[in-house]
Specification:
With about 160 residues, this protein is mostly helical. The chain contains 5 helices and 2 strands. The chain has a two-stranded antiparallel sheet with strand order 1-2. It starts with a helix and ends in a 10-residue tail after the last strand.
Length: about 160
């Protein structure tokens, strides 16, 4: 993941509600699936291991955030476990086909949560974050971000 993408995801996470956080995790998992394809093709076991660890990290975060009192959570858990198994099999056997089994599952879940996103009217999960404003710079039409209250206390209050 490039530094620009990390910054973009960081900004989105700080301003996201619960549903948007799930959507971001699916997007990141799909991005990491794409990153795992190159090491599979070149046989770079270290890079493949790192990519698999990142995919499984996203899946573990999704599993940890589930409310198991709902029936749908049990179905989602089975999908998440399936993704974990397929990714592990891809790394174990150097088989890109296993990653291709994962991609449609994650894409369908991402599409479903994007539809739900519009119905979620709750505010951001993270509070006490810096406000970021984006606007066009003079002359170059580049997007520039600046923060408001850069010295504000964003830490824990005692």
């Amino acid at each position: 993941m490039t530094m620009e993408l990390k910054q973009e995801y960081t900004l989105r996470i700080t301003q996201a509600n619960k549903t948007q956080l799930i959507t971001i995790l699916y997007e990141m998992a799909l991005l990491y699936v794409g990153e795992a394809e190159d090491p599979l093709a070149t046989g770079d076991r270290t890079e493949l291991k790192d990519a698999v660890r990142r995919i499984q990290g996203c899946m573990c975060e999704l599993m940890d955030s589930m409310h198991m009192e709902y029936e749908i959570a049990h179905h989602l858990l089975q999908l998440y476990l399936y993704v974990n198994r397929e990714v592990a099999q891809a790394a174990l056997h150097n088989n890109a086909e296993n990653l291709e089994h994962v991609r449609p599952v994650l894409n369908r879940l991402l599409e479903a949560y994007k539809q739900i996103e519009g119905q979620d009217t709750t505010g951001p999960v993270m509070g006490n974050t810096q406000t970021v404003y984006a606007g066009l710079t003079y002359g170059r039409n580049d997007l520039m971000e600046s923060t408001a209250d850069p010295v504000a206390n964003r830490g824990f209050c005692v």
